[in-house]
Amino acid sequence: MKPAPLPDLDLCLQLDDAAVPPEHRKVLRPSQLKKWVLYALAPQAAQTIEITVRVVGLAEGRQLNRQFRGQNHATNVLTFDYGDPQGLSADLVLCAPVVEREAEAQGKRLKAHYAHLLIHGTLHAQGYEHDTSAQDAEEMEALEMLLMLSLGFDNPYQD
To answer: In angstroms, how far apart are the furthest CA atoms of the chain?
Structure first.
């Protein structure tokens, strides 16, 4: 039996020049991001996938979170799924200062935290949720753990 072909992923990376430090840029290589996103795509995912990854600073992160989630603070990742019936189309917005602060507080490498958040956001773009029920949260977290371990990273939920 032949494995399913990989979907055609059109990945666009946008970095806020003033907000993304050089050490983040080393981690945020398009080929690396594409690998992480492809890992998170379900086998039955649409064959045409367009994902924009935008990495922003605190001001833009706060503004987007306030506008779309009603919360007046920057958050680590926001997922905007555009419900494209012909494929998957989404924007993933990561806030560099929040990602760095969380990685330091949790004793994680910056690269591992970015990988986890991109996987997390990609799962959201495919309809996974963790705020709706405990069962949904357990399912999503289990999948995130499996994907991270498969990529050679530690369990992101391990203390």
So the answer is: 51
Q: What is the pTM of this model?
A: 0.91
Contact present, 76 and 119 (Cβ < 8 Å): no
pLDDT score of 6: 62
For the chain, percent of residues with pLDDT exceeding 70? 92
Instruction: Report the mean per-residue pLDDT for the chain.
Output: 91
Domain-by-domain residue ranges, the chain? 8-150
Q: How far is the CA of 152 from the CAs of 13, 79, 142, in angstroms?
A: 23, 24, 15
Q: Which residues have CB under 8 Å from 131's CB, separation 6+?
A: 137
- Torsion of the alpha carbons at 72, 75, 125 and 157, rounded to the nearest 10: -140
Do strands 88-95 and 8-15 pair parallel, antiparallel, or not at all (unpaired)? unpaired
Distance, CA of 43 to CA of 111 (rounded, Å):
25
The residue written with tokens 């499996």 in the block is: 146
Q: In whole angstroms, give the CA distance from residue 33 to residue 130.
A: 23
Whether the CB-CB separation of 77 and 121 falls below 8 Å is answered with yes
What is the assigned CATH class of domain 8-150?
alpha beta
